[in-house]
Amino acid sequence: MDSDLHPPDIPSVPVRLHKGRGATSNIAHRFARDARGAFDDGWDTLQTGSVEAEQGSPPATQVIWEDCKSAISSNDSADIPFDHSINPYRGCEHGCIYCFARPTHSYLGLSPGLDFETKIVAKRNIVAQLTRELAAPRYKPSHINIGSVTDAYQPVERELQLTRGLIDVLARARHPFSLITKSSGIERDLDQLQPLAASGLVAAYVTITTLDSSLSRKLEPRAASPQRRLRVIRSLAEAGVPVGVSVAPQIPFINDDMEQVLAAAREAGATRAFYTVLRLPWELAPLFQQWLQAHFPERAERVMSRVRDMRGGKDYDASWGQRMTGSGVWAALLSQRFSKACARLRYGQERITLDLSQFRPDFATGQGRLF
């Protein structure tokens, strides 16, 4: 995403909080032909900077079915420690205000704001498509991550079970994979993950942004609580599943308990750790600033100033090698804090190694079971 292009500045209108949702508006996406704003008609109907209380009925979640053309996505980014990924859903009901994937809803003609967390696209044919792709003669196994863009265990997974279907196909094909989530839903699939872990075929990562439950409810309103996520780490570790923790994203002057999160996750059983700094591509920059004005108006300017210090003076810099960690003095200090905490807690920072040699493509379709 080009960091030099941004949607128009958001109009100065009252910010409305929505119960159980992260975004405060359905901001126009960058491909929209029209943008709506507000103006003062002289009757004091527009109170700049005001925040309206949470509404009684939160916007409902809608599932939109999609037939995907491919299940596995590839990337050649030096910033990402895996070559391929699978994401059964587009949009995410967790509502994390910092989610870098929000602007992808613009490609659907939907808002990266409330639409992103209320209009969830489910790829109904993804299990069958993955089966075909793994069985293709030219397919070569490599590290696959599930849930790298939007959470594969978000609430709709309880009913749709697309993630469970994907795990079943990968398990039959003996294909290694990793999962990343901030949901307790992963515990449902321990019956599949435990034997795969014993064979070196799976690893899991749990994101814990902060240990402050009150802050977490504002940042990621429908995700599991921080303490519940620590229990998830413990459950995975006790089942023998290699588990790491993501302390991402780091947001200046908002979540400042990185060391405490790392210590709690290590005590629960995490053996690997990584972090990223806040990323604000495209429409996410004004959306996040709306959120700041709603929840932390007294420090909003200070937060954005520090964000820009780590992004070369811009809201976001998409340059490889910098987009995940930022640059400059403050980014370097954050990196030092992370490295020293990991060394003290004896974390490994390299990714968990999985075994590619067991892959059996004919097993993906069930054919291998005949012999």
Radius of gyration: 21 Å
Top CATH class: Alpha Beta
N→C terminal distance: 48 Å
List the strand order in the largest sheet. Answer: 4-5-8-9-10-11-12
- CATH superfamily, called what? Aldolase class I
CATH topology: TIM Barrel
Tally of strands: 12
If helices are DSSP runs of H or I spanning 4 or more residues, what is the number of helices?
12
- β-sheet strand percentage: 5-15%
What does the main sheet amount to?
7 strands, mixed
Which CATH architecture would you pick? Alpha-Beta Barrel
Keyphrases for this structure?
about 375 residues, alpha/beta, TIM Barrel, seven-stranded mixed sheet, three-stranded mixed sheet, 12 strands, globular, disordered N terminus
Describe, in plain words, how this protein is organized in 3D.
The chain has 371 residues and is of the alpha/beta class. The protein has one domain: TIM Barrel (Alpha-Beta Barrel), CATH 3.20.20.70. 30% of the residues lie in helices and 13% in strands. The chain contains 12 helices and 12 strands. Strand 9, helix 5 (190-198) and strand 10 form a beta-alpha-beta unit. Helix 2 (126-135) packs parallel to helix 4 and helix 8 (258-268) runs parallel beside helix 11 (329-345). The longest helix has 17 residues, at 329-345. The radius of gyration is 21 Å and the shape is globular. Mean pLDDT is 90; it is low at 1-13 and 45-49.
